[in-house]
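Two folds, back to back.
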Amino acid sequence: MSESPPPSSGSARPTGVPQGAGGAPERVLLVLACLFALLRFWRLGEWSLWIDEAYTFADWKFSLDGGQIWNPLGYVAIGQTVAFLGGHADEFSLRLLPAIVGCSCIPLTWWAFRDTLGGRRAALVALVLAVSSWHIFWSQSARFYTMAMALSLLGSGIALRGLWRGKLVRSSIGLAVAAAAAAFHPTAALVAAGLCFAPLLVRLRSPELQQKAGRAASAIGLFALLAALIASPWFISALRQHQENKPTSALLSGPLHLGLTVGYFYTPLLSVLALVGALWAWWRRDIVGLFATAVVLVALGGALVLSLAMQMTAQYTFSLLPWVIFVAVVPYGRERGWAGSPLASFGWPALLVLPALAGTALYFSSRGGERSRWREAYEWVDDEREPGDLILGHAAPIGEFYLGDADRDPRRPRALSPLGFWFGEGARRWNRKDRRVWVVIRPQWLPQLSDRDRASLTTWLAEDCRLMRRFPVLMDGRDLELLVYLRDEDR
């Protein structure tokens, strides 16, 4: 069954834009989506912090008052949540607000796209997002990506409703709200840029948008230009800081890294289905599919350009995930051709939902939240060590969070010695004293050392230390295992 197009009289929308409720299928899909959204609270405090979460705690606790943070809203919000829960910062209290906002992204997705896609297909987008393990990961992380996505979805929903009705003010307000998501993370502005430039790209294939929404589309383009000029100093400062912290090693290494991580985290299947949806929209001149595809292309294109000068990874395109699912869902439920066949009516949602649901089941079981087991490793060492033992480790801010005192600052570890991306004469220095040295490493990070330092470290571990324990994670495509070594006094 297909959702009926709007009547031609009295409607300002292009004829390709669905209208009205999706009936019982919409309600069933939406209820399922909201139920799966609650998974964001399951085992919320069980997984170890990872490095960026430790930095969230450090920056909220020690850097906010110094004006060193250029996107303070997320830090303040997480800090207020911790204070509301009693002031004790642990995995649960640090992650609760991102989980709540991540849960809200599911009904927000349905609302944002319902007026454009129609109720049933918008509910399917929400369901696919609800069972996405990648979305669950960020909902269970003490970071600000779900906050950026939620505000981006709110603005997108307002902008789309204004655009299809040719409403200048509503379109501009929606674009402003979507752009404001950059206050939580500047990369959320990529979606706002997509909303600005998508009408221009759609006109190349379908003149209908110009006929029905041309005034509003032109206005949001002008608004975007003015907003970009006003916000440019802030964006340039944020980008310069990111480039200093994460430069690319070669011209094409950045785009290659971005492409590989996007393919991995969006999943190859969703990427292929989105490509099919984009081609279907081009072939059928489907204005809805063309618009969503244009948003995705502009946002990914912007990330690709930035990756030439700085390291960009899939997480910086996280706010785009609902739009990618949108494109993949576009052919679903159409009356004519293969997309409207009974097989497609059931098979298309199954292809989108069931593999994602399987990935989520693995996320909560064998993959252990898709995090290295830092807490277990450092706490095991803490139980086994003797007075005077040195602890040396990768991700020292995490070790400081778990082993430090009440005034711990993860960016200035005292409970252990950091093993950074260098080694130098470390082995000779650590061997000077007759004391035991515990070493916690993540082997996947060893290639980031220089050839000389990597050879020095691995030789020292092989000749002067012994492997005490492994902390594996059964994660396909990523090596999250941690190793714990011990250098005895008599070595």
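---
second:
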Amino acid sequence: MKAQTYLRYSLLIPFLVWGVCLLFFMILGASQMDEVAYDSSTNIATILTIFFAFYIFGIIVWIFPYILLSLILFFLSFISRAKTTLKIFTFSPLAMTILTIATLNILALGTVGEGMMLSNPGIIDQDFISLNILGAAFTLIWGYICVGIGYGIYRLLQLRQIILDQEIVVAPQSV
């Protein structure tokens, strides 16, 4: 398999992680949701359930920015070398954060008005800042989790020689 081909397939990792998180959330959440609502003690399962819930329900916010970013990365992988594409993919969570924050702000602007969540101007500023910080933190964390998974699989496939780098230059032999 070529490195470029793997990089194109790796664009599906966030959706696979979303599916695994959904499965985990459904299994663990069935028994833990009552505890989250009524119990004040915090354990690892509760923290993981909440962390996964942000990613699962956050798809409403990150799906369109991610589709835009993945289309850009997909077409970029055809015109750049594998090493360059790998570096661009490594920094893609930063671009994803910017796109997600923009989408989050556009969605939040729809809640401004009388009787809405953001009805007081003082609350609007404070909530926008908090919402942006929370959105940026979760986007960066989940982005680099997905990049780490993709890079780990890439290195594993390289070690097993399933992915071969095409850019290895063979030194010319003297006659």
